[in-house]
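User: Second chain of the day. Same drill as before.
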Amino acid sequence: MVSQYIAAAIDYVNAMDHWTFVISLQLLGFAFLIILAQIVEKHAAMRGCNRNPLPAWFDRFLRIAFLSILAGPGLYTLDVNFMPFPIFLPLLGLYMFTYADLIEQRGGRSQLFARTWAFFAWMRERFHLKVVKTAELDPQYSYIFGLHPHSVLPFASMIALGDETEKSQFKKLFPGINFRTLAATFAFYIPGYRDVLLWGGVVDAARYSAKYVLKHNLSLALVPGGATEALYCKPDKDIVYLKKRYGFVKLALETGCRLVPVFSFNENNTYDLLGLDNPLLDAFKTKFQRIFGISLPLIKNIFPKSVHVTTVIGKPIEVPHVENPSKEEIQKYLTIYIDSLTELYNENREKFNIPKDKPPLEVI
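Assistant: Same format as last time:
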């Protein structure tokens, strides 16, 4: 009986013309991805299962399935219609080895080529980027840099810290500070983009990944407000999502790392947004963020605008090493961090904000 069904299916496929087959395959793939998205949301798989890594075989399966469905039918079409023999599908198969290696969960790549690319220098000039130092950072310690605001994408903050070109300001101001940056798990599902992130020193934002970095004597740069904060991005007001963000403070206590608040003034001005304060669009963006762990802003400009961004590096906050911190201890240091960030903002808002009469920083 089973063999009859299989034979019937093969006959049906053989009867299809090429384009019907490709479109059918793509539609089946998207249906599979929708089902997979529901599983991901239910189990928070994009953030790691129960704060532990997913089984490696399942994690790799998710990635291979995603890339195969995303790129497979199109590359098959190119091979069949335009190539004398298959080229693109074999290349896709080779790429799978690095695509699904999960290196972003183990500290990332050792060679950070992207930080020296001319792109960093060009973006630094485009943002008229200036890094301001308010205190010394001893390189013998590890730090957790809290970057604010998230904006649509925190381009300027990442470039301010990650630029290692000849005119790098951060390296000159803080020699000996080596760090990795965190990005949402789904970012490492996007082919090409994933490789640029890894070459730029970006690793998975899951807790087990962050702990791996800190245990290997590196510092971390992260955006505590995450994708949720991006939902509040507005050019005329700075809003940070912090009051319920206990995770990075707990991480600092568990590892004894010092917390450093960082604010990039005018980061929110890099994109023009559509549909601000639209309830329907807000609900859709929230749902998307809940599933994939990344925001889905509706933007008018694909590339960030040329604006004047000033990134101010705050004073380090000493944090004790506590193996199992209590809720009270976590709340205590989160409050200290929020107060320090607010103070940093208030001391510099009139110097660097454009316009200078922006409302005070709102912490939610």
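The first strand starts at residue 130 and ends at 133.

User: Great, on to the next one.
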